[in-house]
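Just curious. Protein, please.
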Amino acid sequence: MASNQDLDHLYQVPLSEFTAARNELAKKSGADGAAIKALPKPSVPAWAVNQLYWTDRRAYDRLTRASERVRAGHAQSLKGKKVDLAALELQHDAAIKQAADRVRDILARTGDPATPATMKAVVDTLRSLPGGEPGRLARTLAPMGFGALGALLKRGSSPRALAEIVTFAPPKPKPPKPPTIDEAAESARRAAEAAERRRRDIGVELKRLASALRTARAAFDRAARARTEIENRLEKAVAESDRHRAEVARLERETRALESERTRLT
């Protein structure tokens, strides 16, 4: 039987290894094997958000708390209470941006391209949190629209989320603290590592392009030589054709002259 720890580990392996790891876990899970083997492989955006949960729980929790405050704020507003929703939304957007930046770093480290389509799906999923099973998403989530707030009114918001809403004059978000020397050094180290990785990638790409260029030039040279040979042969064939045409014309003239003379003698 598979434990929660086994399932948690499954959703932390590199995405390219997910299917093999899932099938291996299914073999060892006895009666649970069929259910585990039926688990869908996560999409790239869903997998990336899962890794945020597993590798940076602080950023993940900060985002979900901000989301809960926004939802609770809308619920209170629908009840007629005065809530500064703009401030709550601002805090939520800041948490989404921070989480999205972390996800972009995760994708960069694993070599997956953080394309605009991928990042849009990531941001949509981040905006939908909390939702789904944390750390085990298989598909992206769609942001909750205002039409879903009625459900919040029926079941109520969490006491903690409601308590965190400051009515009338919520405190403005604190400006980010300037980085410390250690943080600046760590940021510089990460930037240097990213630059070095990019330099190595460029070196590999240049070698590939140089090899492809050599192959293309060799093919071009062969084609040019073949073309020259064909053009020379064509030139010789044209000259030979002209010579034979002239010979045919001469023989035809002589034939007509002799036939005319024979007819006259007859």
